[in-house]
């Protein structure tokens, strides 16, 4: 029996969300810059991305 596919909904970006690029392909949305050190510790290359400029 085939395993059921897991469907992931894309994140709903609110106006006040901050986009953080963790690596070449991964972007997460955070509510405040207080959470940025959490991600920076796990992904040293993490950087804040301007919402108007998202590279593939």
Question: Would you write up a description of this structure?
Answer:
The radius of gyration is 14 Å and the shape is extended. It has a 3-stranded antiparallel beta sheet with strand order 2-1-3, with no helix packed on it. It has a domain at 18-49. The mean pLDDT is 79. The chain has 1 helix and 3 strands. The protein has one helix at 36-42; strands at residues 18-21, 27-30, 47-49. Strand 1 and strand 2 (27-30) form a beta hairpin. By secondary structure, the protein is an alpha+beta fold. The termini are far apart.
Secondary structure layout plus pairing:
Elements (H helix, E strand, L loop, with lengths): L17 E4 L5 E4 L5 H7 L4 E3 L7
Antiparallel strand pairs: 1-2, 1-3
Structural class: alpha+beta
Low-confidence stretches: none
Please give the count of helices. 1
- The radius of gyration computed from the alpha-carbon positions, rounded to a whole number of angstroms, is 14 Å
What characteristic shape results from the CA principal axes?
extended
